[in-house]
Design goal:
5% of the residues lie in helices and 40% in strands. With 137 residues, the chain is mostly beta strands. The chain has a single domain, classed as Metal Binding Protein, Guanine Nucleotide Exchange Factor, Chain A. The strands form two sheets. It has an eight-stranded mixed sheet with strand order 6-7-8-9-4-3-10-11. A three-stranded antiparallel sheet has the order 1-2-5, with no helix packed on it. A hairpin with a 2-residue loop joins strand 6 and strand 7. The chain is globular, with a radius of gyration of 14 Å.
Amino acid sequence: MYTGQCLCGDIRFEYDGPLGPIALCHCSQCRRAHGSAFSASAPIQKLHFRFVSGEDSISEYESRPGKYRAFCSRCGSQLYSRLDAIPGILRLRVGALDGPVGKKAAQHVYVGSKSDWFEITDDLSQYDKTERTNDPN
């Protein structure tokens, strides 16, 4: 069981299912949304995700047609994204989880548009875009 919350604590959630591979996304949308060099997210099954509190504080922004980024309307914490095309999957922002997740990042994606001020120095696989079977944004 994973638990997590937004920065202000208004939104709390639980996830009782497998955590998919953690992708570090360097696309310009993720960089802007997170104010960082990349975002870290993992696919999860929506069926096993539930809000413990604060669901009414979730706001969603449609960043491109059919793609929604969910965040806390009070503190702005990014929590997940979802695609209309894959309704049973959420991309959980692993930074919102409370404790250790027991796995490491699996890959860097959209490195073709990464910032020029960040250098990738690890040995993870790098993709200019991403594998279309699992859109990491």
